[in-house]
Amino acid sequence: MRTGSRRRGRQGTRRGAAALLLLALGVLPAIAPVPEGPRGAAVVSDGDTLKVGATKVRLYGIDAPETAQRCGAWDCGGAARARLASLTEGRMVTCVTRDIDKYGRTVATCRAGDRDLGGALVAEGLAWAFTRYAADYVEAEAGARAAGLGIWRGAAEAPWDYRAGLRADRERAAEAKAAAEAGDCRVKGNISADGEKIYHLPGSAAYARVRIATDKGERWFCDERAAIAAGWRAVKG
């Protein structure tokens, strides 16, 4: 009995070792890991953002027009949002997490059934391939561009440029308000990225480019002496 048990044990060990060798050589298929990420019903916010279950998701590799954005006379932002809503309505959405963005959103590749949501939007000309972060949808974008679909029918501003324009408008409006409040006080008290307080006189090289954000502690001075007394130094050069 003991001899037979030892023999069976040796045979089992050999079979296990053989299976491990075959797996290492790629002869036996490996068990694929189950993708991890949000899954559930979706509520769409805009053309590339949705809530899947309880998780806010930004679709990976694409950038759709902002909701308020127009492409000429066409409401491209609204069209992108409506299309994403139609792709997800009544369907289980499953996502694979790729990253977490600076706003705390889950960046993910998502599918409704067998359809890649990001890929579908790009292929239909309702989103750009966001090549700053990924190249997954470059071919889909090329196809939509060649066919003149959606955003490729005419002039359309890329959403990253649209957002940059909005930021610049807000900064100009804030500075105009601050300047009006400052009255005749035209010396700009700027705070650099490393916290250094620097003032700029009208006519200095960087004066026109410097924006004053009073909510961040920056301020206007009525003259150079007031700036120095408050702890600011003159800009170099």
* Structural Rg: 29 Å
Element pattern in H and E = HEEEEEHEEEHEHHEEEHE
Kindly report the CATH topology of the largest domain: OB fold (Dihydrolipoamide Acetyltransferase, E2P)
Number of strands: 13
Question: What is the helix content?
Answer: 25-40%
Q: Could you describe the largest sheet, including whether it forms a barrel?
A: 7 strands, mixed
Strand percent estimate: 15-25%
In total, the number of domains comes to: 3
The CATH class designation of the largest domain is Mainly Beta
CATH architecture of the largest domain: Beta Barrel
Structural class: alpha+beta
Total helices: the number is: 6
**What is the CA–CA distance across the termini?**
95 Å
Low-confidence stretches: 5-9
Mean pLDDT: 87
Give the overall shape: elongated
Overview of this protein structure:
- It is a single chain.
- By secondary structure, this protein is α+β, with helices and mostly antiparallel strands.
- It has three domains: 1-31; 39-157, Beta Barrel (OB fold (Dihydrolipoamide Acetyltransferase, E2P)), CATH 2.40.50.90; 160-234, no CATH class.
- Helices cover 35% and strands 22% of the residues.
- It contains six helices and 13 strands.
- Strands 1, 2, 3, 4, 6, 7 and 8 form a seven-stranded mixed β-sheet that branches. Strands 12-10-11-13 form a four-stranded mixed β-sheet.
- Helix 3 (117-123) packs parallel to helix 4.
- The longest helix has 24 residues, at 2-25.
- Residues 5-9 have low confidence and may be disordered.
- It comes from Rhodovulum sulfidophilum.
